[in-house]
Amino acid sequence: STPYKSIYYSNTILYQASKCQTSSEENLKKYVAEAKFYRAANYFTLMKKYGGVPLLLTPTLSTKDTTITKDRATRLQVMEQILSDLEYARDNLPGIDEVTWGHPSVSAAQGMIVRVCLYQGTYDKFHAGTNRETGEDYKRWLNLAIDAAEDMIEDQEHDLFSSYGNTLFRFGGEGRQNRENIWVKVYGPYNFGGDASGVNYNNDLFGKFGNTRGLTRNIADLYLYKDGLPRSKSAYAKKQETSYDDMFVDRDPRLEQILFKLGQMSYREGHVPFTTNRSTFSLGVKKYYDHAEN
Predict the structure, then answer these.
(1) Which of 222, 259, 265, 279 suits a disulfide with 293, CB 3.0-4.6 Å?
(2) Which residues does 227 contact at the CB level (< 8 Å), separation at least 6?
(3) Could you report how far apart the first and last alpha carbons of the chain are, in Å?
(4) Distance between CA atoms of residues 25 and 32, nearest Å
């Protein structure tokens, strides 16, 4: 699987770093920290899907390697390894202004600690008193999440945008001018920034609006109305909509900050995704449209 392929790369880096004699220990720490960060992130992906999984901490160098047939570790053992890797990363990664954009930093490790500990803590709390392997120690995980979040706040490396719709998606390459970002996967239109190596999109995305990506109406309907209720219960919801734009009326303002309304122009080539009422199978996402043309 892709996570185990990434874990193999991390383990290989860690193995080679342990034998390296041409670099100082201090210089190696940041590379070891980055490898452990990615290993933790990939094990977190696996743990959320499967719970306990085989815990491989060394590279598989041969088909005869016994780690290939290793038994599954428990969920708690996987979580403890994730936390250990992230704590090392937090203590040894550079600050966010010192890393190449897209690489993990101290705050990325702190953010991941918040995420994984909040996930495990709420899981344990929900299953407390059942026959699950854990359940009584949820406060430990939640307190670790709180501590890491408070450290991030005190470091003052990140801020929230004052306007969700008018600023969050305005920076094509983002970078440090987008101070909401903690850890990013760099992607974008072909040859963005002179580098085509990170393209993750179908080419149609930058050729026009990119209608290969969109939200379903069911997802849009998860946005609440101004009375705090969903569409199925809110008195503000129009049961018989007569216009495509009816879905935005009296709604959480973030909905129209994410999706195109009738007549709004996309970011490129003067393309207007919706000019008439139409099927709402796939709702156009605004992320790369040009605000100056709106």
Answers:
(1) 265
(2) 234, 235, 236
(3) 42
(4) 10
Q: How far apart are CA 4 and CA 49, in angstroms?
A: 13
Farthest CA pair distance, the chain: 72
Q: Which residues pair with 225 in a beta bridge?
A: 251
Highest mean pLDDT of the ranges 37-51, 148-162, 171-185: 37-51
> Token pair for residue 154?
């005190």
Contacts of 25 (CB under 8 A, 6+ apart): none
What residue has token string 């920034």? Answer: 193
- Kindly report the backbone phi and psi dihedral angles of residue 259, in degrees, each rounded to the nearest multiple of 5, phi listed first: -110, 150
Which pair of tokens denotes residue 269?
């080539």
Residue with structure tokens 């909401």? 180
Q: Compute and round to an integer the Cα radius of gyration of the chain.
A: 23
Name the residue type at position 217: R
Whether residue 87 contacts residue 62, with contact meaning beta carbons closer than 8 Å, is answered with no
d(CA 57, CA 54): 10
Render the burial of 266-294: b for 16+ CB within 10 Å, e for the rest.
Answer: bbbeebebbeeeeebeebbbbebbeeeee
Tell me the pLDDT tens digit for each residue of 164-212.
555 555 554 456 777 778 887 765 544 444 444 444 443 333 344 444 5
| Dist. CA 152–CA 154, nearest whole Å | 5
CB count in 10 Å sphere of residue 49: 10
